[in-house]
């Protein structure tokens, strides 16, 4: 029996004249003709599949979309067929309208995002351009080349943070040689982005308290510890809200950046594309930088981290997003550290929630590095030292 949701997905594809078999889905590993090949999922409830199409059909879909493919047709392995990504994003849990609107916003901001070839937003089904298999995390083990990819990513990051929030400022913002070509609809999208305000920040910190402190470790905090936690959370909230508020990807890390197979030999010339941007908010300028340089899934050398923070600062100065008279590099670096602490406290909760609630045990292996980031950065922020000492004692199990 084919599950109802999967049958709805098949119906959607067939309505768009996309030939697909009724395998539920194919899991034999043989790449059967016309079958949906499951891809490894992410931390959400979205499901992804790869589907082979005749080249002519893909070209037809692109013509209907009005966009050119990021990955040239000639880059595919098979000259007779090409692949697309089929997405099942249940509307009860996934922000499908936001995804489509932000996809357009980022495209008009000069960033590479997968083209949505056809979609049923109400029911949560989409067909997107296939950007290949090369995640940003995997292209090279060579230190210099790897760093070049990071510098390339830092430019994409600051393109997002420099997005003009109103039509009045758009003519003054240029970064990486390309102007922003935003429409009235894009400004409406920006206006509707949730604010990374006190309620939002405390909701995220609450994930840590519920799923890490309570449900995973069953810790009974003393009154003194609770007081220190509350003071630390208040400090993090105030500092995040004090920073310049910009468009914020919110998960700008190695697993959400693709390296496009465009034939470039140089890392600095490589084309990068972004994924998983539907949770974008208006938030602190240091947050996406923290996501990139303090990545839960890969670790940079401290000196490389410093170089990248400095590069982002320079990029923001050029884009007039940062006024160097008001925000020094030292202050910006401290802002990034604060954002990193807040982000990784949340991640300690999310990784435990993925394990306990969703049965996704694969994220547990990232708990030690995530905690090390929190402890490391708390030592560099005076107001967070006492909080860090409690975590070092109480969460020691993750470091053993």
Write structural notes for this entry.
By secondary structure, this protein is α+β, with helices and mostly antiparallel strands. The chain folds into two domains: 4-129; 143-399, Aminoglycoside 3'-phosphotransferase, Chain: A, domain 2. Helices cover 44% and strands 12% of the residues. The chain has helices at residues 4-15, 55-65, 96-108, 143-161, 184-191, 198-214, 223-242, 287-293, 302-318, 329-356, 367-378, 385-394, and strands at residues 37-38, 47-54, 81-88, 116-120, 125-129, 174-175, 178-179, 245-248, 257-259, 272-274, 281-284. The longest helix is centred in the last third of the chain and has 28 residues, at 329-356. It starts with a helix and ends in a 6-residue tail after the last helix.
Provide the CATH architecture of the largest domain. Alpha-Beta Complex
* Outline: globular
- What is the tally of beta strands? 11
The string of secondary-structure elements, in order, is HEEHEHEEHEEHHHEEEEHHHHH
Query: Which spans have pLDDT < 50 for at least 5 consecutive residues?
Result: none
Find the CATH topology of the largest domain. Aminoglycoside 3'-phosphotransferase, Chain: A, domain 2
Can you tell me the CATH superfamily of the largest domain?
Answer: Aminoglycoside phosphotransferase (APH), C-terminal lobe
Instruction: Tell me the radius of gyration.
Output: 22 Å
How many helix segments? Answer: 12
Give me some keywords for this one.
alpha+beta, 44% helix, 2 domains, 12 helices, 12% strand, 5-stranded antiparallel sheet, Aminoglycoside 3'-phosphotransferase, Chain: A, domain 2, 400 residues, 11 strands, single chain
């Amino acid at each position: 029996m084919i599950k109802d949701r999967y049958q709805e997905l098949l119906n959607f594809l067939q309505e768009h004249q996309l030939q697909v078999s009724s395998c539920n889905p194919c899991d034999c590993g043989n790449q059967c003709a016309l079958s949906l090949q499951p891809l490894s999922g992410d931390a959400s409830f979205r499901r992804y599949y790869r589907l082979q199409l005749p080249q002519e059909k893909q070209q037809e879909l692109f013509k209907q979309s009005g966009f050119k493919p990021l990955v040239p047709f000639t880059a595919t392995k098979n000259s007779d067929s090409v692949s697309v990504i089929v997405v099942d994003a249940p509307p009860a849990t996934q922000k499908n309208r936001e995804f489509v609107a932000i996809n357009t916003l980022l495209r008009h901001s000069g960033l590479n995002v997968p083209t949505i070839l056809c979609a049923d937003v109400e029911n949560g089904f989409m067909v997107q351009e296939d950007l290949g298999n090369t995640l940003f995390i995997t292209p090279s083990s060579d230190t210099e080349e790897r760093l070049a990819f990071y510098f390339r990513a830092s430019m994409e990051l600051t393109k997002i943070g420099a997005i003009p929030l109103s039509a009045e400022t758009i003519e003054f913002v240029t970064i990486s040689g390309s102007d922003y070509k935003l429409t009235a609809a894009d400004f409406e999208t920006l206006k509707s982005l949730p604010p990374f305000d006190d309620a939002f920040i405390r909701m995220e910190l609450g994930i840590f308290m519920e799923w890490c402190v309570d449900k995973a470790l069953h810790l009974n905090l003393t009154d003194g510890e609770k007081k220190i936690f509350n003071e630390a959370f208040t400090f993090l909230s105030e500092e995040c809200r004090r920073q310049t508020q910009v468009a914020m990807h919110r998960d700008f890390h190695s697993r959400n950046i693709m390296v496009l197979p465009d034939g470039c030999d140089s890392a600095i010339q490589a084309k990068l594309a972004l994924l998983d941007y539907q949770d974008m908010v208006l938030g602190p300028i240091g947050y996406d930088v923290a996501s990139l340089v303090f990545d839960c899934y890969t670790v940079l050398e401290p000196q490389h981290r410093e170089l990248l923070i400095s590069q982002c600062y320079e990029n923001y100065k050029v884009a007039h997003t940062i006024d160097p008279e008001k925000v020094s590099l030292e202050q910006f670096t401290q802002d990034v550290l604060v954002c990193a602490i807040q982000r990784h406290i949340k991640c300690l909760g999310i990784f435990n929630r993925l394990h306990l609630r969703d049965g996704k045990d694969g994220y547990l292996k990232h708990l030690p590095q995530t905690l090390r980031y929190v402890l490391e950065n708390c030592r560099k922020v005076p107001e967070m030292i006492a909080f860090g000492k409690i975590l070092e004692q109480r969460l020691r199990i993750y470091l053993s």
